[in-house]
Amino acid sequence: MSDKPIYVTRSSMPTWEEFAEEIREIWDTHQLTNMGPKHERLERELESFLGMNCVSLFTNGHLALEAGITALGLTGEVITTPFTFASTTHAIVRCGLTPVFCDIKPDDYTLDPDKIEDLITDKTSAIMPVHVYGNICDFKKIEAIAEKHGLKVFYDAAHAFAEKVEGRSVAALGDMSMFSFHATKVFNTVEGGALAYNDESLRPIVKGLKNFGITGPETVPYLGGNAKMDEFRAAMGLCNMRHLSEHIAKRKVLTEIYRERLSGIEGIKLNPVREDTESNYAYFPVVFDGFKLSRNEVFDALAEKNVFARKYFYPLTNTFECYKGVFNADNTPVALRIADNVMTLPLFSDLEPEDVHRVCDIIASL
Ligand SMILES: *Cc1c(COP(=O)(O)O)cnc(C)c1O
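Above: query sequence and pyridoxal-5'-phosphate SMILES. Below: predicted holo structure tokens.
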């Protein structure tokens, strides 16, 4: 007997009827893109949901990151983490800047603020931390360092949509935050992303950068590319926003089952819970530290039983083949160790509680 496959994630979708109703208008207006009514409606809805002056939609999170780096006027060196998705590091390099890798904290895998100051030089222009798995960075220490040295703080908040810390929206931290609305994220627009910031003076450049630098029919003040979100994706976003809290509530229930089942097992370290944070339950990472099997052995044992977890984040970005000879991962030993031992378990809103039990039964039986 072979059990049905369980994948690490599955995209949240509205019903076909709800989406069909949402896109009906597009056939009346024939406006498919170029900041149409759905795009504008979703931007205003996200501004109010995130409590921000400005939210700008993009065709994906990665291009939003690149636009944010340019809009903030970053130069030279950027202090960042290698324990992230390829996008964060590539965005810095593709913008012609140098990533300077800072190690992470062993407890929540975010940038270790105590190691930042040693890396600051006269070329440093910014800190780009990542709220890994939705674990909110030590923003008070990071922002105090940034203020002391006159640096910008640009958060990769791809994992942290809808979260709150000490009652504040995560989007309000630092100078700017990037959210990804990729199909695999807690909230999706198929592909998509956004920049969130409060400095209104950045609005023209951010908008310009996603539309060829054009700000008026005859004015092109910026060197922009094309990263506009189209009306179909904005429609998907409008639908998915209606069900966001229901999806997060379902993820929470599943997360609690995982925690209860796995917390007693020796050698398995669970993600920390912070009392001052409202989580979005985006991921369920486990670190194998002193467990009887290695991460790779557990990964293979699950796959044999048709359960497909993910080695996330592995490998570290500073060990990628494209950066061979450029960076030295020995400078970030904690990140190196976590990347070798971490795995995210299947988690999505319509995963069944029985499926979570099945995953835990396999791990418990190893
Ligand atoms: C998903 C993700 C991105 C990139 O977002 P896309 O929308 O896929 O371009 C960037 N950083 C992190 C940490 C991510 O998880």
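The pocket of pyridoxal-5'-phosphate is lined by residues 60-62, 84-85, 87-88, 130, 156, 158-159, 180, 182, 193 (CB under 6 Å).
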